Structure formats: C-alpha cells, structure tokens
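Action item from last week, closing it out:
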Amino acid sequence: MVIRFSGLLLRFVDYQRTVTLPACTLGEALALLESSHPRLRPVLQDNTGRLRGTHRMFVNGELVPRPTDATPLDDNDEVEFLTAIAGG
C-alpha cells in the first residue's frame, strides 16, 4: 500500500511524498511509519493513539470518517492524509 503526504506532514517524513508499506491495517501502517519516521506520531495521533481531529484520512480517494487501528487496508490501496489549516 502507498501512503501519500502533502503540506505540513511532508517535513515529518523527510519530504517523501509517497511511502510504500506492507500493511493490512491502519495500525500496522502507522507502526511501520513511526519506526522509520518517529517525529510523525505526535503529529498524526493524540495521546490515546487516535488520529487527530485536524487530519482527514482518504483511502482510494474516499474519506474514511472514523479511522481506527483496525481499519483494513489492501496492498493496492492508496492512503492520503490531509491536514486542516486554520488562520485568518
């Protein structure tokens, strides 16, 4: 599976726009990402391990409204995280 990053999150994955991982669930994917990019965890997840509310997760272009560690992923899936930007 491929995870795509953009915007703010790029600096936490060494500016790699795509990362390919062998994962079957979101939890596995995040664990693999954290092992290679440890600064990403506190940005993506809150203290309980849930995806922070400022991020939206899309799988194959479709919004996943409430992703959990058990959210299933396939080898052919493309996951993208988008971050809300606040300002005035």
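Closing note: DSSP finds two helices and five strands in the chain.
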